[in-house]
Amino acid sequence: MAEPDFRAPKGTRDILPAESGRRRALVDVFARRAELAGFGEVVSPMFEDLGVFKRLGEDTDVVTKEMFDFFDKGDPPQHLALRPELTAGICRAYAEHRPVPPWKIWYEGPQFRYEQPQAGRYRQFTQVGVEVLGADDPQADIDVLALGWSFYESLGLGQVRLLLNSLGDPGSRPAYMEALGAYLEARSGDLTDQSRVTLERNPLRVLDSKREGDQTVIADAPLMVDFLSGDAAEHFRVVRSGLDGLGIAYEMSPRLVRGLDYYTRTIFEFAADALPGAQNAVGGGGRYDGLVEDLGGPPTPGLGFALGVDRILLACDAEGVFPGPPPAVLVFVVDVTGGGSALSMCQKLREAGIGADRSYGGRSMKAQMKVADRSGARLAAIIGEDEVAAGEVTIRDLRGDAGQRRVPLDMLVQEVSEFVPGPN
Ligand code: AMP
Question: Looking at the structure, do residues 245 and 168 belong to the same domain, yes or no?
Answer without folding.
Answer: yes
